[in-house]
């Protein structure tokens, strides 16, 4: 009986947090006019959330592409179809691995930083001071970070994809000796711009909304203590990763199943 009560309590808590997060998203959208009037606020946050994440995204994409190219080549060679290595790797990166892994990396780096920064501002009563000065903290602090994360995510996913394809190229052409023209030709002939590229960008944009919303929400509602910020940071990474995988399943079912 106690286990059922605990399950019910956790379910109610989840529903409450979900509802508050949706209302928080509406509040951010309604107060996004400051971002349009002062785009420098968003550009500054895009540097911290996007530009500073490029190295980890590019390096991770390079090694993922190399590993994927190595495994794909060994399997395709058994069926004498290694010529489609470039297409196989590019399709996998564009449709799934690029958006998903880039979003998880973004959540663990930029997302956690957003949560910690906003949580620290709350702990040091900076947000309360803004309210006293008649400055809306949602419009001044949250909205620029939210839109910076949303816009940065597709760009970072694209960098991840490019680095991954380049890693597969190094394995296929320079390591296994594939023909350079065959590698690129098969990729260009078989990839579909809308089916592969556009759907992948849509995924990364949705992941950007999800990850950034979770990050700013957890930071804004974190307990104003060092322990509270630490727990909010952990919740950001864990919740973002699980939500990305769940949303990815739903988007894949809608986009790539006929």
TrEMBL record:
InterPro entries: ABC_MlaE_roteobac, MlaE_Permease, Permease_MalE. It is found in: Cell inner membrane. GO terms for cellular component: ATP-binding cassette (ABC) transporter complex. The chain crosses the membrane at residues 50-73, 85-107, 146-169, 193-217, 237-256. One of its GO terms (molecular function) is phospholipid transporter activity. It is a multi-pass membrane protein. The keyword Membrane applies. Pfam families: MlaE. Keywords: Cell inner membrane, Cell membrane, Membrane, Transmembrane, Transmembrane helix, Transport. The complex is composed of two ATP-binding proteins (MlaF), two transmembrane proteins (MlaE), two cytoplasmic solute-binding proteins (MlaB) and six periplasmic solute-binding proteins (MlaD). Belongs to the MlaE permease family. Part of the ABC transporter complex MlaFEDB, which is involved in a phospholipid transport pathway that maintains lipid asymmetry in the outer membrane by retrograde trafficking of phospholipids from the outer membrane to the inner membrane. Probably responsible for the translocation of the substrate across the membrane. This is Intermembrane phospholipid transport system permease protein MlaE.
């Amino acid at each position: 009986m106690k286990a059922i009560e605990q399950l019910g309590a956790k379910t109610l808590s989840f529903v409450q947090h979900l509802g508050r997060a949706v209302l928080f998203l509406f509040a951010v959208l309604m107060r996004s006019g400051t971002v349009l009037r002062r785009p420098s606020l968003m550009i500054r946050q895009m540097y911290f959330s996007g530009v500073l994440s490029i190295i980890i995204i590019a390096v991770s994409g390079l090694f993922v592409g190399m590993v994927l190219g190595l495994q794909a080549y060994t399997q395709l060679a058994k069926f004498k179809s290694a010529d489609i290595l470039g297409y196989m790797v590019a399709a996998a990166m564009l449709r799934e691995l690029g958006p998903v892994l880039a979003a998880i990396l973004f959540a663990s780096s930029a997302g956690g930083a957003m949560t910690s920064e906003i949580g620290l501002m709350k702990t040091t009563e900076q947000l309360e001071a803004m309210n006293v000065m008649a400055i809306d903290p949602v419009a001044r602090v949250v909205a620029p970070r939210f839109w910076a994360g949303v816009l940065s995510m597709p760009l970072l996913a694209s960098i991840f994809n490019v680095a991954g394809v380049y890693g597969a190229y190094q394995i296929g052409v320079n390591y296994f000796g594939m023909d350079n023209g065959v590698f690129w030709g098969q990729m260009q002939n078989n990839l579909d711009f809308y089916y592969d590229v556009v759907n992948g960008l849509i995924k990364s944009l949705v992941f950007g909304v999800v990850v950034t919303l979770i990050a700013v929400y957890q930071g804004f509602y974190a307990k104003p203590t060092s322990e509270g910020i630490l727990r909010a940071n952990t919740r950001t990474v864990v919740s973002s990763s699980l939500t990305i995988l769940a949303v990815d399943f739903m988007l894949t079912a809608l986009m790539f199943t006929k």
